[in-house]
Amino acid sequence: MIIKANGDPISLNSCSIFPPLALAPMVGLSHSALRLLVVELGGAGLFFSEMLSVGKLPTENEKISPFLTRTPAESPFFYQIFSGPGLDVVPAVERLHTLNAQGIDLNLGCPAPALRKLGAGSFMGDKLIVETIRKIRSATTLPISAKIRLGKTLDEKVLVSFCKMLESEGVDLLTVHGRLHGEKFCRKVRWDWIGKVKNTVTIPVIANGGIFTVTDARKCLHDSGADGLMVGRGAAIRPWIFADIARELYGVELAERPSLAKIYFRFVELLEDRFQSERRLGRLKQFTHYYAENFAFGHHLASGVQNANSIKEAGEIAGKFFEKSDEQ
Ligand SMILES: Cc1cc2nc3c(=O)[nH]c(=O)nc-3n(C[C@H](O)[C@H](O)[C@H](O)COP(=O)(O)O)c2cc1C
User: Fold this and answer.
1) What beta strand segments (E) does the chain contain?
2) What pLDDT sits at residue 30?
3) Are 302 and 292 in contact (CB under 8 A)?
């Protein structure tokens, strides 16, 4: 079934997002190598960086920083930033202009303990959120997006007024992860609650959380009425998930996916291409932890790569595993 109602691009003044499918910001995972792999497999219409500290961004060297490395193919591209009390967001925004940002995403949903200390992500108070968005808005004409969760507790009034506030302050696009701040990933995602946001604001809403298959994508769009979808862990398990969704829900013609082994080794090549040698193995291990889910005996792949001391050794372990595995 092709979903006509949701089949329009998301249009933000300077950029058009189609298919309206985004690769989520994920520390250690959604770097240039995974983004390029997703570009090659097709189907994603929007890319985000891993979250970047407003304090560190202005001095981060893009020539060597694994967080800033990016190719023009990874486009449209929104850099995700997090800020907190005492930090000035303007120099970070100015820096993002020099990096050809196509949008700026403010992380307002992350509950990680590291952000608690900084008063960032889901720990940012409303007053500071307003100040920060105003400063970003005054420093850029680029689209501003915000990524949120459903709130501290399930409270429709609070959620709706928070989202209206974000919209009225100049946020152009909202991504909603359908869980509360304190909820772990094992908790069920509330796609219908994302619908409450969609019904309230006039800016486009992207739904996020728990999308691992085309069936999930279809149900999430149905339950939320969102304008687009964001996929996180599902994209590390199946980097071709965007292509599958784009084909089935948006009628986009794309090539069939290569074999699982080919995709894995292409990822290794991209890591080698994009990162200095000491930056590759950790990222391969993190990716393999998810990719291994494609295989009945994937834990052998994950633990083998986990114990490897070099990317070459990891490749040999993976090669032997793929030879024996039934999954193609
Ligand atoms: C390893 C990892 C790192 C993440 N890093 C970020 C991040 O930098 N910024 C952010 O807004 N969310 C981050 N998230 C949350 C994801 O963007 C996404 O909201 C979450 O994984 C739910 O979507 P999913 O079910 O499709 O994975 C991270 C999630 C994971 C698993």
Assistant:
1) 10-12, 15-17, 21-23, 46-48, 52-53, 77-82, 103-107, 144-148, 173-177, 205-208, 228-231
2) 97
3) yes
In this prediction, residue 182 carries a pLDDT of: 92
Number of domains in the chain: 2
Which atom of ligand 1 is found nearest the CA of 179? 22
Closest CA to 263 of 1, 3, 34: 34
pLDDT in tens, 34-44: 999 999 999 99
The span from the CA of 293 to the CA of 35, in Å, is 19
Instruction: Give me 34's structure tokens.
Output: 């995974």
| pTM, to two decimals | 0.97
User: What is the reported pLDDT for 128?
Assistant: 97
- C-alpha 48 to ligand 1 mean position (Å): 11
184: Cβ contacts below 8 Å, ≥ 6 apart: none
Cβ of 23 closer than 6 Å to ligand 1, yes or no, is no
Residue 4 inside a domain? The answer is no
186 is catalytic: no
Of 149, 178, 172, the residue nearest 162 (C-alpha) = 149
Kindly give the number of the ligand 1 atom that is closest to the alpha carbon of 80. 9
What would the two tokens of residue 312 be?
Answer: 């070459």
Q: What is the pLDDT of residue 13?
A: 80
| pLDDT (tens digit per residue) in 115-153 | 999 999 999 999 999 999 999 999 999 999 999 999 999
Report the separation in Å between the CA atom of 24 and the middle of ligand 1, taken as the mean of its atom positions.
6
Ligand 1 atom with least separation from CA of 105: 11
The residue among 190, 220, 250 that closes a domain is: 250
Q: Which residues of the chain have pLDDT under 70?
A: 1-6
- Amino acid in position 86: G
Torsion, Cα 135 150 161 46, to 10 degrees, reads 50
**Domain stops at, among 229, 250, 271:** 250
Ligand 1 atom 23: residue of nearest CA = 209
Give residue 1's pLDDT.
Answer: 37
The finding on whether 211 has its CB within 6 A of some atom of ligand 1 is yes
227 and 273 together in one domain: no
Distance 27 CA to ligand 1 centre (A): 7
